[in-house]
Amino acid sequence: MKKNLFVLALIASIFINKTIAQNYQVHSLYMYSFTKYVKWPESYSKGDFVIGIIGNSEIKQHLQKMASIKKVENRLIRVVEYSSVDKIEKCNMLFVSDAESGNFESIKNKVKGTSTLILTEKEGLGKKGSAINFIQRQNKLLFELNQSEIERAGLQISKELVKFAILI
């Protein structure tokens, strides 16, 4: 009986982990799509297109895979993982992992005054200042869009992207 419960728990954990990994693959596809609908100022449109990640997340491997085959307007995509808020440097996008959500205010303050598109994955962070917040609804990955934060970062967003977003 205990052996059967263990096997069931193992199968369930594999399924759950596979679902999470698949979601991060979808996250990375969304993020790449956003590059086509968001316009950065001239100072952020030269050199590599940098996607930063703060906090350990499985999204890193998916973003790196995407970066190895895709470009943003003929620019190479470089994925950089930051180990702490203090280490965050200039980047086009900054993905805040769920593990770092508790430090969101510090992260937001660190990139204040820059043209960094902040992306998060925790309920409520869209209203707290994330430009794009991924959420799950009925087993679907959706995203909230905070237009005032996008404007505050000096970014321009296409109306097509707004149509697919949950506006907050």
Keywords:
168 residues, alpha/beta, Rossmann fold, eight-stranded mixed β-sheet, two-stranded antiparallel sheet, 10 strands, globular
Major sheet summary line? 8 strands, mixed
Order of helices and strands: HEEHEEEHEEEHEHE
Q: What's the N-to-C terminus distance?
A: 49 Å
By CATH reckoning, the class would read Alpha Beta
How big is the Rg? 17 Å
- The H-level CATH homologous superfamily, spelled out, is Response regulator
Mean pLDDT: 88
Number of helices: 5
CATH topology: Rossmann fold
Global outline: globular
Low-confidence stretches: 1-21
Strand content: 25-35%
Structural class: alpha/beta
Count of folded domains? 1
Output the strand order for the largest sheet.
Answer: 3-4-2-5-6-7-8-10
Number of strands: 10
3D architecture notes:
With 168 residues, the protein is an alpha/beta fold. The protein has a single domain, classed as Rossmann fold, CATH 3.40.50.2300. 40% of the residues lie in helices and 25% in strands. The protein has 5 helices and 10 strands. The chain has helices at 2-37, 59-69, 104-111, 147-152, 159-164, and strands spanning 38-39, 49-54, 71-72, 75-82, 93-96, 117-120, 132-137, 140-145, 156-157, 166-167. An 8-stranded mixed beta sheet has the order 3-4-2-5-6-7-8-10, with helices on both faces. A two-stranded antiparallel sheet has the order 1-9. Strand 7 (132-137) and strand 8 (140-145) form a beta hairpin. Helix 1 (2-37) packs across helix 2 (59-69). The longest helix has 36 residues, at 2-37. The protein is globular. The model is unreliable at 1-21 (pLDDT under 50).
